[in-house]
Model the fold of this input.
Amino acid sequence: MPVLSGRRASGSMVWMLRLSKFVAPLLLAPLAACATASTPDEAPPPWRITGPLQAITTADGTTDPAIRGVWKSRGYGRLLRIDEAGVTQFEIGEACYRPASSGEALSAMDSVSYRYFRALPESKTAIFQLLRGDTNVVFDRLGALPEECTETPATNPRAVADAFLDAFERHYAFFDRRPPNHAMRAERVNSAIRPDMSDAQLWDALAGYMDGLSDSHTKLIGEVGGERRRVQDGQGTTLPRMRAAEGGETAWLIGLIDTTMKELGETGHHTGNDRIMWGVIDGRVGYLQVFQMGGFTAREDFGSEAWATAEMTEFDRIMDEAFAAFAEAGVEGVIVDLSNNRGGWDKIAKAIPARFTDEAYIGFTTVTRGSGLPPFPHVIEPAPGPRFTGPVHLLTSDVTVSGGELATLALRQNPRVVHAGATTRGAFSTPLAKRLPNGWLLELSNEVFAAPDGSVYEETGIKPSTALEVYPEGAPVEGHWRAVEALTEMIASY
Done:
């Protein structure tokens, strides 16, 4: 029989459920193995010597004088000009320009700008972030805006194509995993560019570069002839199949939700702006499904401090309620269902594994192509609220992508987690959003996410240790719950 023990800390019950076969200490990836360790002859990475996090814009609406000036990123192709009024972003590579913009965001990543900084000693280098706890982007201070930087860039086909190709050549990190290489793809584009070509023809030429890239984080978005267009590949097998089926993706999702809630019965909760389901199966197994890493509130000010605070507050509230209910039920194990997780905010992706550990550990690392920096370790800190440290079964599929894969990667570093289901999508990198001179938006993958041992799963996806068919072609709704029942039986067999 499992033994339930609890203790109180910071006003929240922290509880542990341990079976006799899990009494050994939790052997999680040690922080001492951090890839950023430096020798006496090496300079420490910037994040180890930086100052406190500060807002770029102060309470009176002006910028912090300490951060005003011109800053150039390492590895992201960005240049920031910060004056009293605010931040102006330039794209910098072979050319330096402030792109045209209608003021309308073309994607989530296009809608946010840098809001925070942490200065290093002597103020010659700083880390900038879009959100608290977000990716560390290192910038170096310049004496002035480079003379070649312009606010009126050329927007002819050659100029747009050059900026597009330059961005891929400098920043795309995965040609080795998604051939052919840049040179072969660029040849397609260059052979099609003509001075008198139309916007539609230019669009087709750039889209041709991306043929077969199979990377759902790399996309081209823009308006051609008054019509919004989008090029994006790498959607896996299940999603295209369900979108083409009768009733489409919506009918499928409704079926999955209805079935899950029926099976969970009176314990079922569908909450967090419809992004989370949880309950107890057969009175003995906790069930948690997260569809998206964020969007738990109805707020529309994505990326703002108020949005971030509200999202984390709501997520923590839901997790506290769910895990307290798991404790009260005395569950023998928990199923974490990320089989339909579409990604989102990395902070949520790390907050899920934080509910299943009592010790801090490295969940994964990131390094940006062209930054010259060592991998940054993303540490999973134990959540302050209720936690479960008994057996966990993680369910994934080829729908699981981005933030869902980051959570998967971090959960797999916990030896109490059994990964089951189907291989994940294989698209990890936070999209690097770059506006082309004519205002079209290019997003591409420039960050390499890896397990603490250095293993990279971009394109290949993360293969479970226990294979289960999650969304079979003939029964994509019923098959999902059969997979959940299989995991329930596994937990019951301990």
User: Anything to note?
Assistant: The domain at 3-33+237-426+461-492 is CATH 3.90.226.10 (2-enoyl-CoA Hydratase; Chain A, domain 1).
